[in-house]
Structures are given as C-alpha cells and as structure tokens.
C-alpha cells in the first residue's frame, strides 16, 4: 500500500511542472478582458502582439464548443532555445516559448505567435469545456488533481493535440493539417497496406513505427467533424464529462453521436484518408532514385541531412529505434559511425568539416537554454564547441570552411543572419531583419559570395538572397502561404522543398527569369537537397515506411519539368486535402506591424503572486488517513504543502507543513510537523510503534544541470538541519524520549549517455551519490550514519544493457539501544531477502544486472490491456551485514521479468513484473512482485 500511495500523486500531477526562470528576469504584465500576459521587459512589442492575437482568437477558437473559458495568464519565455508552448494545471496557466523553429516541414512557416494563439488557446478551451459535470465535481473535491485525473482517464491524448491541430488549420490559411509532411508517415503505411490496431497506433510499439498522437488525432478529429459535424464532436466531449472516471467515456460519446466507437472511428478515418490519397496520387509520376544507405532496414531508422564529402562518400545523421543519434559515413552502402550527436535542427558539411547547433541547458535555470554551434573535423573526428551561451540555429559552412552562416535570436526575439568565424566562433557580420520576420536554413553559393534563406512574415513566405559581404539582399520570389523551405544554390537556380503538388518534392527557381521547375518527386516526399559537385549528383532524403533513406539522382536540367503559367500564386497543396470552405483565416492582414499602439502594461511581481492553492487530496496512512493541500506559484518558484494525518483508533493526529523557495541560486526548504505518527520498529518484531514527534527542519539544495552534447548530466548538492523531539510508546503507559539535533549533507551525480528508443538501459553512464547524517547532541543514542552508492552502465550488444551496482552504509549508535531514532536504509537489500529486524552497523551491497528485451508482443486483450514489451534482468546480488561483532553474508541470483502494459487504453504505461531469486544461504527460492521496478 505504501508504494501505491506514491503512484497516485504521480498519475494525478501529469500536467504539473517545476521549472524556474533566472531571477534576473524583470517581469511586466498586460491585462485584457480575457487574458493577462506576463513577459520579460524586453518583449513589450511581442507581448502587445500576443495580447491582441489572443483576444482576436477568443471567440472563434471557442466557437466549436459553445464555451468561453474564464480568464487565464499567459507567460512568455524568451530565455530558452526551445520552440514550444503548453497549457497546464497546478496552477492553471499557459506558456509560450518565443523562438520559432527552423523545421518548417513539421510546423509550417506560419507566424509563430499566430500558431500558438490558436493551438495553445484551444487547449485552454478544451480543459475548460471538460471541467463540467462529473469532472467539475472532482475538481471541487480535489482541485487540479481531480481535473487531471478525469482528463487523463476519460479522454485519449490524441484528442487534445489532434483537435488543436484541427483548430490551427481551420482558423488560418496555414496549419499542419494542410501539410503533406504532417501525415506523410501514416500515408506511407496506408499506401503499402500496413495498418496497425488502434491500440498499437495510439499507445505505441517497440517493433513498428507509427507517428505520435498529434498526427493520429488530427486525422480522427477532422474525420468526425467533417462527416458528422461540429455538434457531434461537441456532444461527444460533453458526454465524456458526465462519466469522466470511466476510461471509455469518450468512446461512448462517439458511439452515441456518430454511431461508431473509437476503434471503429479509427478504421473509418484511415479508410477515408487512404481513399483521398489514392485520388491525389492517381496521375503522379515519381523520379528514379538511387538509395545510398543500406536498403535493408528491419527496424525504423532515419537517415537525414545527407552531404557529400568526396567521391562516393556521404555523411548523414542517423537516428531510429536502435540508434540514439549519430553522424555516419556512407560509402557504397557500407556504414561507419563517426560520432554520437544530438543536433538542434540540421547538420551541414563543406566536405572537410561538419557543423550543427546543439541545445545546452543553463547550469541552474531549467527555463534557460542555449543553442550553440559545434564544429566537427571529419578526418580527425575531433569535436569543438565554437560558440557559448548563444541562440544560433541551422548553421552552414562556407565552401572554403572559414566562415559559418547561422540564424540568431537575441533576448528581444530579434532575428538576424549572422556570419561567424569557424575557428574562433567570433561574430564577423550581422544582418538584422525587422521584428516579426523569421529567417530559416541559410545556404552558401559555390564561391561563398551569396547566402540564400527563407524569410517569413505573418502569412507570407519568400526566398531571399543576401550578399555575404555587404548584407544587401534581394527578395527573389514571394510564395504566399506555400511552405517553401531548405533552399540551396545550383548554378543560376535555387532548389528548394515545396508541397506544391500535394506531396513534398524538390523544385527549382530560375533566378534569371523566375521560371519554376519540378526537379524530383517521390511517392511519400523528398527533403533537404544538397549537391555532390564531383559527380553532379543531387542528394536528398527520401521517405519510406521504415524511415528516411539517403537518395541520389543525376542532375540534368533539361529533364526538369517546367511549371506553366497556370501556376496559381499563393496556391496551397493542401487544397487537395483540406476543404478551404471550412476555413476562416482569423488573422488575415494581422501582423506585428499593424499594432503600433502598445496596450498599457505594469510591473509584475512574482512575490505578490507567490501562493496559488490548486489541489487538495486525501491519502491512506498506517492506521489512519491523511489530507494534503498543495500550493505553487505560476513561475514555479514558491511551493507549499500542508496537511493533517488522523488516527481514529487513538484519537490522535499529526499536522505538517513544508515551504520551498527555488527562485534564487540555492533552493531553500522549511518544514515543520507536530503530533502522532506510526513507524515500523526495526529493532524488534517489525511492529508499528506510536511516536509523538515535534520536528523543525531546514534544507538547502543546489541542483545543477551539466548536460552536454549527447549526455544528460546533473549534480545535486544538499545540506540540512532537523531539530527533533519525540516520545516513543512501547505500551499504554511507558515511553522513551529522544531529543535530536541532526545535520545532514549529501550529493548526487548522474551522467548518462542518451539512449535509443529500444535500449533497456543506458549504454554508458554513471550514477553516484552519498549522504551523511550526524547528531550534534553528545548524549544521543543516534550518533551518525553515512550511505554511499554507485551504479555504472557499460556497453552491451544490441539493445541489451549491463549495470554494476555497489554501496556501503554505516550506522554508529549505542549497540544495545532499543528505541533509537530510525532512518530508512538508502541501499537495496540483497535481492530476494527482507530487511533485517535490526539496524546493522555496516551494510555493504553489490549487484550485477544484465538486461535484455525478450518480446515485443504488441498484443491487446480487447480494450482492457495492451502489452508493448517484455524484458528481463539476469542478476547476482551479494551483501554483508555487521552488528555487535556478528557478520551475516547473503547472496542470491536469479531473474526479473518486467512487462510494459497500458490498461483501459490509458496513455501512460505501467510496468508490472516479478523477481525470482535463489537465496544461497537459505537454499530456497524467493518470489517477489514488482511495480514500476519496486519489489513488494
């Protein structure tokens, strides 16, 4: 039961988070009738723009639900290299990360704030609409925890993201629903007659790839609304709120309002989608391409951003189910790994070196990160980070390799094309563009005199060429909303990606006369062209059902198909996939320049907005019941918890409170508790003992993020003080008292190489921790205690893993003391054995585990149970316990079996397992159940 208590808050708080901004940020606030926009002082213009966008979208984004939410706060974050946004609870708020992405084939080229205003506010509408009927009752009982539980149980995750993508497509002339690349992956499966079960498509698989719930959710949302109307969609959601503790509530709502449950709707959606795609491809002719990587891929793997580095030699970025991310060298379809990498966006090479940007978090503030440039020498395999604490994206090496062009954002969200020295990282030139203009993916011409970029402003996209010395530029062509991307030079042409003909393909623009040509097409999409000048070959990414391949074709301009004058300006290929009669472009002629007059703003004080009570919940305890109240602020700097535990049989209680502040460099925590509690007496018979306890505690911590490149690393330093006065009852009359002044100090260091999706353990890494407790009161039974442990991860073949574990714990207490202050052991017991009924003076434990996947069953038991993977750990465990000059040596070996399951089609997996141990000392077999890796 005690383990289950910890799982419930975890499941309930899926929307909650605790990331902080730097305390140097000066916050301001703009208030409108329905929003409060809180922002760093540098973003006055952008905050004003966001305020107008949100008010403009307020009615229309809510229209489908006939529901207008109560006012909400939006936080703008400009210190992060991330391109994202979210709506969350605990407490309720919305956040936008203000830096646009360079990956237009995944998000489109629409104005970043316009996209966020529709997509993220649609989430606000969803949450508010769902907070009715039974969900509303749960929120009265439990606050945001109650809401989150109901949302998680009753609504599939694809609903939230799919419906939001539908909104961004319906309410603009862009949106991902108009982009062939957005449903390319599903298209490839359907076209090749591969269709997975609903559970496999929604809940995932380690065996086969299916895109995430954004893609699935959009198609299903669009199918229901298009075929049964907005009213059927709204009523299905309303039905789910009436029985929102039932996992199939939304499915029942669909059945009631469309005649089809969620599984049938999935099949109908894909049937309709497949038929549409067949119509689109009826007259398509695809280019003949040569595959440059190994053609046989038995698992999903992407080869992307191919670049020639010499005759028959290509480098590419490889990532897939079995690969965490690496730069590889391809020669005649053979393959060699060059280096493990984790690029922010693309990679680029001039033949001798490769360059990419990599996201590096701030050492202390989670909401602050950087995108710095890494230079890699292909011959020597030496890597060098050449910039520090900047926001640089999509770097491209000049042909001779001395300079790098990149896109830069500063804290004011001003975008620039910058040229930096490839050796030192120093800035050589900067070409700033007007506020609101987004530049993407620069590329040099063959002599380094020009740089081409895509430039988007509001809802228009253009190809722009810069003079690399003077900064003078020329707009070569404006494409309107067409999602033109990744341009490169070839002779007097500009080659680029476009979804012009309903499939992403490669096109050319003759800069001398603005004639346009189809260069290469493929069934599912071609991307990221580059030129192999030695062989006059065009390199590209070619999508297939098992991921991207590197493909090539000879360049013959005479074979390119000219696009005749019937080309319609601003034509969007998705007209074949989306009915524009259903659209309403709510931000037409609406951009950051049209709002010159700023709305009034004022200073925002995090301290005055520090405590927001958002959740309250009961929980079971030993012999009683407890009740917690949670409070946090919207910037995650102040966290409070208070509660009471009540023991009805003894008519006793315990009250407690905890307050943390994380807005300065060290984290500070105060806690206080007073009253009755129950603990297990490990000195005798493991019975529960009554304790009256009065505790005051203070903790100081310093969490540091040391992650770099493809390693996730952290260091946490902690120290604290507890003043404890307790009375322990061992019968109805007698008791003993303990008065302790206890100090503690410790650290935890983790450094793990990023893993592939299928890996059961990290391939390489270290986890090291140590903690020390000491009583500073001379007459105390409890003197001191220290615990140190280490885990080492070593490479193993395939997706297997090897882990070595070691630890030592010492306790210095009066040997014959009966009622000393107890601390739970921080070390695992020898596998298969129960903890002893005494506190050892010395305990040492070591283990070796070899983990491996056994099966990827992807099997479902109706809608009740879905199993993705069965894995095993083979282990040997050894420990020594010393007490009163007595040594006890224990050892065991055996196996653990873990299954990853989803129950009732809920999106979060739960791992159940069992451990079978042969206990060598006792000559017997022990069996333990395991939940989320914890034995029972």
Features:
single chain, 936 residues, alpha+beta, 18-stranded antiparallel β-sheet, 12 helices, 49 strands, globular, disordered N terminus
What does this molecule look like?
With 936 residues, this protein is of the alpha+beta class. The protein is 17% helix and 45% strand. The chain has an 18-stranded antiparallel beta sheet that branches. A hairpin with a 5-residue loop joins strand 25 and strand 26. The longest helix has 30 residues. The N terminus is likely disordered.
Topology:
Layout: H1 2-12, E1 27-31, E2 35-40, H2 44-62, E3 72-77, E4 85-88, E5 93-97, H3 104-107, H4 112-130, H5 133-142, H6 144-154, H7 157-170, H8 184-191, H9 198-203, H10 213-242, H11 249-258, H12 262-280, E6 290-291, E7 301-310, E8 313-320, E9 323-331, E10 334-340, E11 343-349, E12 353-361, E13 369-377, E14 382-385, E15 392-397, E16 403-409, E17 415-421, E18 427-432, E19 437-444, E20 450-457, E21 460-467, E22 473-480, E23 485-490, E24 493-498, E25 505-510, E26 516-520, E27 526-532, E28 537-544, E29 547-554, E30 561-562, E31 601-603, E32 612-621, E33 624-632, E34 638-647, E35 652-661, E36 667-680, E37 688-705, E38 711-729, E39 735-753, E40 765-775, E41 782-794, E42 801-813, E43 842-855, E44 859-861, E45 865-883, E46 886-903, E47 910-919, E48 924-931, E49 934-935
Parallel strand pairs: 2-3, 3-5
Antiparallel strand pairs: 1-2, 1-31, 4-5, 6-29, 7-8, 8-9, 9-10, 11-12, 12-13, 13-14, 15-16, 16-17, 17-18, 19-20, 20-21, 21-22, 23-24, 24-25, 25-26, 26-30, 27-28, 28-29, 32-33, 33-34, 34-35, 35-36, 36-37, 37-38, 38-39, 39-40, 40-41, 41-42, 42-43, 43-45, 44-45, 45-46, 46-47, 47-48, 48-49
């Amino acid at each position: 039961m005690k383990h289950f208590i910890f799982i419930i808050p975890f499941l309930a708080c899926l929307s909650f988070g605790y990331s902080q901004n730097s305390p140097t940020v000066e916050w301001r606030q703009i208030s409108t009738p329905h929003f409060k926009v809180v922002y760093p002082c540098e973003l006055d213009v952008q905050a004003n723009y966001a305020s107008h966008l949100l008010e403009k979208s307020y009615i229309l984004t809510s229209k489908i639900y006939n529901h207008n939410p109560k006012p909400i706060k939006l936080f703008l974050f400009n210190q992060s290299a991330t391109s994202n946004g979210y709506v969350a609870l605990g407490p309720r708020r919305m956040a936008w990360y203000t830096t646009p992405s360079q990956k237009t084939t995944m998000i489109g080229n629409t104005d970043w704030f316009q996209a966020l205003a529709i997509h993220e506010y649609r989430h606000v509408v969803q949450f508010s609409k769902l907070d009715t009927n039974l969900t509303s009752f749960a929120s009265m009982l439990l606050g945001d925890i109650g809401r989150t539980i109901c949302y998680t149980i009753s609504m599939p995750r694809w609903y939230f993201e799919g419906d939001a993508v539908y909104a961004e497509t319906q309410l603009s002339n862009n949106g991902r629903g108009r982009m062939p690349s957005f449903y390319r992956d599903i298209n490839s499966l359907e076209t090749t007659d591969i269709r997975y079960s609903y559970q496999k498509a929604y809940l995932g698989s380690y065996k086969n790839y299916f895109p995430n719930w954004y893609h699935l959710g959009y198609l299903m949302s669009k199918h229901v609304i298009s075929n049964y109307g907005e009213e059927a969609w709204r009523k299905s959601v309303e039905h789910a709120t009436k029985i929102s503790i039932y996992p199939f509530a939304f499915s029942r709502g669909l059945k009631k309002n469309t005649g089809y449950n969620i599984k049938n709707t999935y099949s109908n959606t894909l049937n309709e989608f497949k038929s549409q795609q067949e119509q689109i491809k009826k007259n398509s002719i695809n280019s003949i391409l040569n595959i440059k990587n190994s053609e046989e891929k038995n698992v999903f793997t992407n080869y992307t951003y191919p670049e020639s580095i010499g005759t028959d030699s290509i480098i590419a970025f490889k990532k897939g189910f079995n690969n965490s991310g690496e730069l590889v060298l391809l020669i005649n379809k053979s393959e060699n790994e060059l280096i493990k990498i984790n690029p922010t966006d693309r990679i680029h090479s001039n033949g001798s070196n490769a360059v990419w940007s990599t996201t590096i978090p701030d050492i202390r503030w989670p909401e602050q990160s950087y995108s710095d440039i890494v230079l890699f020498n292909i011959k020597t395999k030496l890597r060098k980070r050449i910039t520090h604490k900047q926001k640089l994206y999509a770097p491209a090496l000049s042909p001779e390799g001395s300079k790098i062009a990149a896109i830069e954002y500063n804290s004011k969200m001003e975008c620039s094309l910058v040229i930096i020295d490839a050796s030192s990282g120093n800035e050589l030139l900067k070409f700033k563009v007007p506020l609101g203009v987004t530049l993407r993916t620069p590329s040099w011409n063959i002599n380094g005199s020009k740089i081409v970029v895509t430039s988007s402003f509001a809802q228009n996209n253009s190809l722009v060429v810069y003079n690399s010395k003077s900064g003078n530029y020329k707009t070569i062509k404006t494409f309107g909303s067409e999602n033109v991307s990744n341009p490169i030079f070839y002779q007097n042409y500009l080659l680029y990606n476009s979804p012009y003909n309903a499939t992403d393909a490669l096109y050319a623009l003759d800069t001398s006369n603005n004639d346009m040509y189809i260069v290469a097409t493929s069934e599912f999409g071609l991307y990221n062209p580059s030129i192999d000048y030695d062989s006059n070959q065009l390199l590209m990414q070619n999508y297939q059902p098992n991921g991207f391949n590197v493909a090539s074709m000879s360049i013959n301009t005479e074979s390119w198909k000219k696009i005749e004058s019937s080309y319609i300006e601003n034509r969007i290929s998705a007209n074949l996939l989306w009915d524009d009669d259903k659209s309403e472009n709510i931000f037409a002629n609406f951009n950051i320049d049209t709002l010159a007059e700023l709305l009034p703003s004022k200073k925002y004080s995090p301290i005055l907005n520090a405590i927001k009570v958002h959740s309250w919940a009961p929980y079971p305890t030993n012999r009683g019941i407890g009740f917690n109240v949670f409070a946090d602020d919207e910037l995650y700097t102040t966290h409070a918890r208070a509660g009471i535990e009540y023991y009805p049989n003894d008519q006793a209680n315990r009250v407690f409170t905890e307050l943390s502040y994380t807005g300065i460099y060290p984290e500070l925590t105060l806690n206080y508790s007073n009253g009755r509690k129950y603990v297990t007496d490990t000195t005798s018979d493991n019975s529960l003992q009554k304790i009256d306890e009065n505790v005051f505690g203070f903790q100081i911590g310093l969490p540091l993020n040391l992650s770099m490149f493809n390693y996730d690393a952290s260091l946490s330093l902690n120290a604290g003080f507890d003043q404890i006065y307790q009375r322990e009852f061992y019968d109805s009359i007698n008791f003993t008292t303990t008065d302790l002044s206890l100090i503690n100090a410790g650290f935890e260091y983790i450094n793990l190489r990023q893993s592939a999706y299928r890996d059961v353990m990290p391939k390489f890494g270290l986890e090291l921790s140590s903690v020390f407790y000491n009583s500073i009161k001379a007459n105390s039974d409890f003197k001191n205690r220290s615990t140190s442990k280490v885990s080492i991860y070593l490479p193993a073949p395939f997706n297997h893993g090897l882990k070595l574990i070691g630890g030592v714990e010492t306790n210095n207490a009066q040997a014959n003391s009966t009622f000393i202050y107890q601390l739970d052991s921080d070390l695992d017991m020898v596998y298969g054995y129960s903890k002893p009924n005494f506190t050892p003076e010395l305990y040492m434990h070591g283990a070796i585990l070899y983990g491996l996947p056994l099966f990827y069953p992807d099997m479902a038991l109706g809608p009740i149970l879905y199993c993705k993977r069965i894995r095993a750990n083979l282990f040997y465990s050894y420990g020594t316990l010393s007490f009163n000059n007595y040594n006890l040596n224990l050892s065991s070996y055996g196996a653990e079996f873990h299954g990853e399951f989803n129950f009732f089609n809920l999106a979060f997996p739960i791992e159940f397992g069992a451990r079978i141990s042969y206990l060598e000392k006792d000559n017997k077999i022990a069996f333990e159940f395991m939940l989320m890796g914890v034995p029972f």
